[in-house]
Specification:
Number of helices: 17
CATH architecture of the largest domain: 3-Layer(aba) Sandwich
CATH superfamily of the largest domain: Type I PLP-dependent aspartate aminotransferase-like (Major domain)
Radius of gyration: 23 Å
Structural class: alpha/beta
Shape: globular
Distance between the termini: 53 Å
Bound molecules: pyridoxal-5'-phosphate
CATH topology of the largest domain: Aspartate Aminotransferase, domain 2
Number of strands: 16
Largest sheet: 7 strands, mixed
Length: 497
């Protein structure tokens, strides 16, 4: 980021109409008789509460008029569409959770089939349930060396296209949680040749495509739509997400209707303005420069960690464009217990995005610098200097489950009901041993990142339970299950569709 020590706004912010409108409202001498109820005067109740709420400006009756007559959101979205090469862009305050649901609601009709990569986030599952779509799951290839996800192979997609030519869309998640990418041009080319739109959950790749020599984003690689969490890859507010689409194979009115049907009617302008500002930064030379600088710092961090004998995958281990250069993933390879490393990092004031017994995943942002990244590397090296000998998380085969893909299965379990049918089905709670062979009523996912291992409507198999056990043994939190110990599971009583 550009730092202006004079206190003047950075030059690139002048190109951010929604940010400018948000800021104008902050400085206006107004006594609004609109929502939000704090009226930006919560400091009269308590100064700390005021600090919390003072940045909260509504879009309606704040950054714009109640009637949105200024069109600042539309203008900001149009600029983002132009930057990403999209025909349509919407800014969401509901995270990529919301924008994934929008994509599902905008393709096909209830009962239609969709081809879905099995590393889909739980928000895709909720989108499928809302839209009544029938997923055909595509297994993700794993890296035998690291156990992490590699991506969906072209052969997998071609076979699925041949077997399911009537499917309404191909839904991919790219990059993976660990920074790996599929051969998107080949996958998209195959789907388009079959007349199928490709929708990409690029939640972890908002920064992709804006620095020379760094991987391109999904739209540039031919996707029909992508959704991305501005708050993950860019300096933006939590919950900030973009939906970007091309309309050759997708209906813009369906996208808009699906978006409006599921978005709040009171969006926070601060969140939306932060997307606008992040876009303006990317569009300026400062964006590319920051990406290049941070990628180089992460490259140096990888080199230091590798020199200490740690396994640290990077772009050089993959085909060009198939690894996010900003991703810092450390595989401890038996050198230390990742949960101990995480504790040491927490004690040093360096919380990380994810840690399990064999992995530490640090989310690096454009505002990181040599000091913050250096502190992180020093602390990791300090924590592995005196390693315990071996630990239960050493098995690379277990890693796929814990690190963002549910494809440890050789054969994916049958999807006996749609996620929507399972959501509304009568269910009962049974001891886990009795759940095998029954149909799951619930979604169970190691978190972070929330990639389901057990999907509603899917048959519960021994392989699934083993995989969840492996994730628990690796120290990963099992989320969303009614019984987080997994001693019992909720299954559908009558699994006839
Ligand atoms: C692949 C993927 N998609 C979507 C989401 C949801 O994004 P958000 O947190 O912006 O709602 C996540 C969150 O981690 C994710 O990992």
């Amino acid at each position: 980021m550009q730092i202006d020590r004079t206190g003047q706004p950075a030059d690139w912010l002048a190109d951010a109409p929604l940010f400018t409108a948000w800021q104008r409202f902050l400085h206006a001498d107004a006594a609004p008789f609109t929502i939000p109820g704090h009226k930006r005067r919560a400091s009269t109740l308590d100064p700390a509460l005021g600090r919390l709420l003072d940045a909260d400006v509504p879009l309606h009756g704040g950054a714009d008029t109640v009637r949105l007559s200024g069109g600042v959101l539309r203008e900001a979205e149009a600029r983002a569409a132009a930057l990403w090469g999209a025909d349509l862009c919407r800014f969401s305050t509901g995270g990529t959770t919301h924008t994934n649901q929008v994509l599902c609601l905008a393709v096909g009709r209830p009962g239609d089939e969709v081809l879905v990569a099995r590393n889909a986030h739980r928000s895709v599952l909720s989108g499928l349930a809302l839209a009544g779509l029938r997923p055909t799951w595509l297994p993700v290839d794993l890296d035998p060396r690291t156990g992490g996800p590699l991506g969906i192979s072209v052969a997998t997609v071609e076979a699925a296209l041949a077997a399911h030519p009537q499917a309404a869309a191909l839904l991919l998640t790219d990059p993976s949680y660990l920074g790996t990418r599929s051969d998107l041009p080949a996958l998209i080319g195959a789907a388009h040749a079959a007349g199928m739109p490709v929708l990409v959950d690029q939640a972890w790749g908002a920064h992709l495509g804006f620095a020379a020599g760094q991987p391109a984003h999904a739209l540039a690689l031919g996707a029909d739509a992508m959704v991305t969490s501005a708050h993950k890859g860019l300096p933006a507010f939590s919950q900030a997400s973009l939906l970007l689409a091309r309309t050759e194979r997708l209906d813009p009115d369906r996208l808009d209707r699906a978006f409006e049907a599921t978005h709040t009617t009171s969006p926070a302008a601060a969140i939306l303005a932060s997307i606008d500002a992040a876009r303006a930064h990317l569009a300026s030379p400062h964006g590319g420069a920051a990406l290049t600088r941070v990628a180089s710092l992460v490259g140096r961090a990888r080199a230091r960690l590798r020199a200490a004998g740690l396994l640290v995958p990077g772009p050089e281990d993959h085909a060009p464009g198939r690894f996010d250069p900003l991703k810092l993933v450390v595989l401890l390879d038996g050198r230390a217990d990742g949960l101990d490393v995480e504790q040491a990092l927490l004690a040093a004031g360096l919380p990380v995005e994810m840690a399990d017994r064999r992995t530490v995943l640090a989310q690096v942002g454009l505002v990181d610098d040599a000091t913050t990244i250096g502190r992180l590397v020093d602390a990791i090296l300090g924590a592995v200097a005196d390693p315990p000998v071996g630990h239960p998380g050493d098995d690379p085969a277990a890693a796929g489950m814990t690190q963002g893909t549910a494809t440890r299965h050789d054969v994916l379990p049958p999807q006996r009901l749609t996620p929507r049918q399972a959501l509304f089905a009568a269910y009962q709670t049974v001891p886990r041993g009795q759940a095998v062979g029954r149909v799951s009523a619930e979604l169970v996912a190691p978190y972070p990142p929330g990639v389901p291992v057990l999907v509603p409507g899917e048959e519960v198999t021994r392989g699934t339970l083993d995989a969840l056990d492996a994730a628990m043994a690796a120290g990963t939190r099992i989320a969303y299950a009614a019984d987080p110990t997994l001693a019992t599971l909720q299954v559908v009583i009558d699994a006839r569709p």
